[in-house]
Structure formats: structure tokens, C-alpha cells
């Protein structure tokens, strides 16, 4: 059955397009890659970054008929702007500042830390124990014991971000319903104290009252994906697929690889052949996210706090009491 797809329109520019200068970008400066989208630092010395679609290469192309405006990735960036304009700020979401005055592309606060992907690559050899792994048994790789609390805290903070996102569309906040979409390492930035933030809404599905649904997109091509094999009305993100993607990301943080790198069967999701992790690596919770036993982020937060408390940590909100993440890397 055909579905009604809503395309998020670009926000109207707050400055006249004719003769407007292009958005200045600081080169070199802070930058990050979010699948096909780049985040580049604005040359204004106030700590701002802009999300740019790959087709936006010529900085003077701000006219309404510019080629990049009709491309899919521009729509993804405008979806991000649209959703941010409908929600309140949250410490576990990258902070939205404004739409760019000429393009409507989202301008976000520059984080105090690195993109998570860059950080993990820099510290991977010290963080992961590959001594027991081999080509025939790659599933043995685990995060080193001293770094497990860091992953516990990141898992809590990512779940907290999802809980905030999923709180919209309920009776208390009916202004918009949101499912985040592809939650992977490229959509995470680090802030002060090595706390973590989700970035974006590039792949999100959303709906505002009285409007048709804007169906989300998928750019993560892994066979281990909750939308793998789905077609038609079922191939758009939901709250449950967000929780499942959380499980995939935390699995990667615990083992150093996305689940399909450990269990390469391309039908692993459609047949339910889940890779296993021990409880101390949050394996039970991750498995429950994949099977659908945990279907929303509020339930995930409750289960996660209980499990981490059972592992010996006191949890307040989404932080571990007495844990100093930066001390782990003080000698790096």
C-alpha cells in the first residue's frame, strides 16, 4: 500500500537571497562526518558548526534554484532544522542555535570534545582487549575492564537522549512525534568530561498534528539493522527501531565492531541470530532491545539503571557517581 510521504520544506531565509554572501566556513577548523553529511566550523569565532549536504560545495550557491537544494541530503539537513525547532534543548543532544540565514541548514554549538568516531579511533588499541581474538573467533574482543564504566555512562546518556526524543508526541508534549533513525557512532559527539551527545535528526521520522508523516531514511547499510528486509510502510524508523539501534551502537562500544562484523550472516536480523554478550557488557539488555522485549527508551532507562546498579555503580540520572572519565586518558 502506498504511503503518504511528507517532505520537510526548507526554512525561509531570514535574509534576502539575491546578492547574499555565502556562509563562511573556517578552514582549517573543527569538522566531523555524519554518514554523507559534514559538520564544519563557521568562521565567526563563537563556536558554531553547520551541517552541510555533500552537494553544497560552492559557497556562493544560495539562490532558490541552486542544484544542492533539490537533493535528498539537503532535505535531511532541513529535517534536522525542522525537528530542532519543535523541541526543547537537552544536555544529551547537540545544541541547536539557529537555521543558517541564507540556506536554512542547521547551525549547532561546537562541542567541547571530539566526534566519538575520531576519539575511538585514537584510543582503540588501549581500550579493547584483542589478545584472545583470532580470525576464527572474532567475537572474543571486549572493552578492557577499566573502560567498562565509560561505556556504561555513554549507554545511559544515549538512552537518556532517546527518552527525551521519545517523550514528544505524548499527551504532555503533543507538538511533534519523533523517531531518531540511524543511531550509530557517526551521530555522536563528545563534550566536557567525555559526556556524549546525539547529533542530528538526519534520518528521523516525524509527524506534527494535522500533518502527514515524514518518513525517515536509512543511510547505515549494515545487514544488522532493525529495518533490514522491511518494505513499504514498515521501512521507516520507530521508537522500537531506535532502541534496537541503541543496542547495536552499545554492542560496538563494548566490542569494537558493529554486530555484523562479529556475526557475518546477512540474514542474522531477519532470522533472529543475535550475537551474545555477557551481562557485565550489558548483553542481556542489548539482546532485549533486539528482540523487542524493550520497546521504548523510558523502559530502556529503567532497565539500564537497574542493571548498572547491580554491577556495583550508583547511578544518578545518567552519570555514574564517583566516576572520572577523563582520568582514564590523563596519560594518553
UniProtKB/TrEMBL annotation:
InterPro entries: Kinase-like_dom_sf. Residues 8-24 have a biased composition (Pro residues). SUPFAM superfamilies: Protein kinase-like (PK-like). Residues 1-24, 215-240 are annotated as: Disordered. This is Protein kinase domain-containing protein. It comes from Elsinoe batatas.
